[in-house]
Amino acid sequence: MAITSPGIGSGLDVNGIVSKLMQVESQPLTDYAKKEASFQAQLTGYGTFKGALSSFQSALASLNSISKFQSVSASSGDTTILTASASTTAAAGSYAVNVTALAQAHTLIANGQASSTSSLGNGADTLSFQFGTSGTPASFGVAKTVTIAPNSSLQNIADSVNSANIGVAATIVNDGSAAPYRLVFASTNTGVTNSMSITATDPILVGIMNYDQVGAGAKNMTQTAAGQNAALTVNGIAVSSASNTVTGAISGVTLNAVKIGTTSVNVARDTAQVQPAIQVLVKGYNDLNKSIKDLTGYDAKSKQGGILQGDATVLSIQSQIRRTLSSALPVASGALSTLSQVGVSFQKDGTMALDATKLQSAISSNFNDIAGLFTAAGQITDSLISFESSANSTQSGTSSIVLTAMPSTGAAVGNVNLNLGNTTIAVGTALNMTLDGVTASVSLAAGSYTASQLATMIQTAVNGTSAFSSGGSSVVATVDAVTGFMSITSNRYGSASNVSLSNGTGTAVATFMGVMTSPIGVDAAGTIGGATATGSGQYLTSPDGLKIKVNGGVTGARGSINFTKGYAYQLNNLLSTYLGSTSPIDSRTSGIQRSIDSITKQTDVFNTHLIATEKRYRAQFTALDVLMSKMTQTSNFMTQQLASLTKSTSG
């Protein structure tokens, strides 16, 4: 019978012997595991390093935005009189403002009724509302109608007017008298041109709510508030506005009148955001510096080095970042060319610190230069030209600007004198219009219009056409005060800007435009730094990507632009290369990953070798076991035979 369990026949511990031999044979696996663990730790270290670089890049974001340095604030000396806000186009200055009248809506109140819900006994009617200037019948525009059902109550009428959404708010007040319920109509728009004229045809409604300012009809409502414009002076110049929100009185500033009174408005650069943004930069760098120290340094107390101790790639990147921050800009932004000039400096331990006093001094004396110290910015000597953007290829330096063509908008210009009398637009009139390359049908509201009313109606109709508004196109319609000619002008500049009209249905276009001319817009043209720039609308772009916007002026030499690439801009580009797919970090981690993959393959091959080795050892020791078992059997047999022979001889 064959031996089935190793060592049973011979007494050898075959399993133990093979196990100890395999421990010796497996020693290289431990070395492989240690190497792989070391490489995995390096990958983790590089992941931590990339995360620290990414956080530092995020800390640079606000300083790398030109808008951070273009914010403008407007403050009122007395916010109970007016409040103010400013856009980036506002110019710094101080203004004296005197509010002498607030804009108010035209309000009318009807005679009292015993009930607000009882039927008035009226027949079916149509209330007609027109809006214009009180005392000037011709100023009132096309009537907006509200259908009133038979036997309506005051509440029914108020609900019908409110549901019609025609620019009138209807309410019912109770004055506590014998007939307390009084209907109130108020224009939803303030200003003298939004006064109401109301006409009805049913005798009962005429007696309650007629207020005819256009014809000779009755005025059976009482005016409790006249339509009124806001009136104010800015530095002594009179300003009138239909709304209490006044724009244009101060360029780039919006004023909100609250009550009558005198106060001041101060417009200034908003510098409050700059110091916190620079503090974020300093903290971001210090956080990165600590992360690098932890990864690459050596702790003498614990006698342990970082995961990436002495790593050349990490230390090289750290050196490049520090060199960028400590070097002066090759092209200065005005009076500033180093971070130390705004209070940012390196300390002996390698960290950065901010001197808030020195920074505040730089903000007070050289704020316009700070933008170029941090971001990609261009300072232009001509106030009617502004810096728009740049490309990575844009070169720092000063470049001259010469314009050979001013940008313009497309328009359709008529030759009919609309100031001679009203223009009638028939019911169902629609014109065909092409605006900035898009063609659509524009429906016009029927009615009899003065020149200014016609321009307003056409402008509203065009801008309310979705085919145009969805593409961002709109127009401004105006009538020349002297010639009476209408111009419909696109809001877009450049060769893509065009306006043309043709007959659709109803009133012919020639009625109010006559023989039209349709000049196409012109793109800005010129040179930047002597090189021909590409024009598109108001924008000019140099061959190396420097983009400017032409806001006005004339052709010819227009000064120069000083373009700088500040620290935040340079660092952002540098960090992008370190965090990209072809960066030194990725090359290093790819090499480490290849080493890990190689170790994995070597481990797999060696494990296969160990399986074969163990099989060979077991075969050899099993054979020895069998041989020793047979030898034991032979020994036992010989012993028995010798014992028998001795016994026989003795006998």
Structure commentary:
It contains twelve helices and 36 strands. With 651 residues, it is of the alpha+beta class. It folds into five domains: 1-65 and 271-375 and 566-651; 72-103 and 230-269, no CATH class; 107-225, no CATH class; 385-407 and 524-565, no CATH class; 409-513, Sandwich (Immunoglobulin-like), CATH 2.60.40. α2 runs antiparallel to α12 (584-650). The radius of gyration is 44 Å and the shape is elongated. The two termini are 37 Å apart. The mean pLDDT is 90.
The number of helical elements comes to: 12
Number of strands: 36
Spatial shape: elongated
Task: Count the domains.
Answer: 5
Q: Report the sheet with the most strands, covering strand number, pairing sense and barrel closure.
A: 5 strands, antiparallel
Distance between the termini: 37 Å
Structural class: alpha+beta
| Uncertain residue ranges | none
Largest beta sheet: strand ordering: 1-15-3-11-12
Radius of gyration: 44 Å
Helix fraction by DSSP (H/I, runs of at least 4): 25-40%
If you average the pLDDT, what whole number results?
90
User: How much of the polypeptide forms β-strand, as a percent range?
Assistant: 25-35%
Key structural traits:
elongated, 651 residues, single chain, 5 domains, alpha+beta, five-stranded antiparallel sheet, 34% helix
Write the layout of secondary structure elements.
Layout: H1 14-25, H2 27-60, E1 72-76, E2 82-86, E3 93-101, E4 107-109, E5 125-132, E6 144-148, H3 154-164, E7 168-174, E8 181-187, E9 195-199, H4 203-209, E10 222-225, E11 230-234, E12 237-241, E13 245-250, E14 253-257, E15 261-269, H5 274-296, E16 298-299, E17 304-305, H6 312-326, E18 344-346, E19 352-354, H7 356-374, E20 376-380, E21 385-389, E22 397-405, E23 409-413, E24 423-425, E25 430-435, E26 438-443, E27 447-449, H8 451-463, H9 466-469, E28 475-479, E29 486-493, E30 499-505, H10 510-513, E31 525-528, E32 531-532, E33 534-536, E34 539-541, E35 547-550, E36 556-565, H11 567-579, H12 584-650
Antiparallel strand pairs: 1-15, 2-14, 3-11, 3-15, 4-8, 4-10, 5-6, 5-9, 7-8, 11-12, 13-14, 16-17, 18-19, 20-36, 21-35, 22-31, 22-36, 23-29, 24-27, 25-26, 25-30, 28-29, 31-32, 33-34, 34-35
Helix pairs in contact: 1-12, 2-5, 2-11, 2-12, 6-11
